[in-house]
Write a structure and sequence with these properties.
Elements lengths: L1 H22 L14 H5 L3 H10 L8 E10 L5 H11 E6 L4 E6 L3 E12 L6 E6 L10 E9 L2 E8 L5 E10 L10
Antiparallel strand pairs: 1-2, 1-8, 2-3, 3-4, 4-5, 5-6, 6-7, 7-8
């Protein structure tokens, strides 16, 4: 009888320890809320953005003018401050049906463009809009961005540095002007 009680106590303790240790592991334990606008995307944590990206189909390729934000950085030093600084200058992207895109900046300036293609994501190998820049492109020559549409007109995606070895730098969100989660008055 004592052996049985001892086994039950040990088994219960192990089960409790497993539950407690997995609670803080960063593994999602419930559904991630699907954002419908940039403000909602901004409030998500890195693991939630990755989970949304993995669950999303590619959607429609980005075409039009999109407001954008750097919503998460993986940097260990001052990531929120760096996001705020980047967002004080970078405003989003403009893209056309041919795959050409241009970054939008403060003061309605369009500067630093390239072409996007549909290709495999570095996150999961599924199709994504892939944006890379030519060598010697100011600010972005080392960058590899990916996008998927997570709700109508709202795109999220990882931002990687390509070399010396590819690594995740953070997450961006882009929202087409015509699709801000509510109807615009004309």
């Amino acid at each position: 009888m004592i052996r049985l009680v001892r086994r039950c106590v040990v088994a219960s303790s192990l089960l409790l320890a497993m539950v407690i240790s997995s609670a803080g592991s960063g593994t999602p334990c419930c559904c991630v809320p699907i954002p419908t606008n940039l403000d909602e995307a901004q409030r998500l944590k890195g693991w939630q953005l990755e989970e949304l990206f993995r669950q999303a189909e590619m959607g429609r390729p980005l075409v039009g003018t999109a407001n954008g934000r750097l919503v998460h950085l993986t940097d260990k030093r001052l990531p929120r401050l760096k996001c705020r600084l980047a967002n004080s200058l970078w405003r989003g992207k403009k893209a056309n049906e041919c795959g050409d895109f241009m970054n939008r900046w403060i003061g309605n300036r369009d500067w630093i463009g390239s072409r996007y293609v549909i290709g495999p994501s570095w996150i999961d190998g599924k199709p994504a809009v892939v944006m890379e820049y030519a060598p010697k492109t100011p600010l972005f020559e080392n960058m590899h961005d990916e996008l998927r549409e997570v709700s109508p007109g709202l795109y999220i995606g990882p931002v990687f540095e390509r070399f010396p070895c590819p690594h995740l730098r953070g997450w961006i969100a882009l929202q087409l002007d015509c699709c801000d989660g509510k109807r615009r008055k004309r």
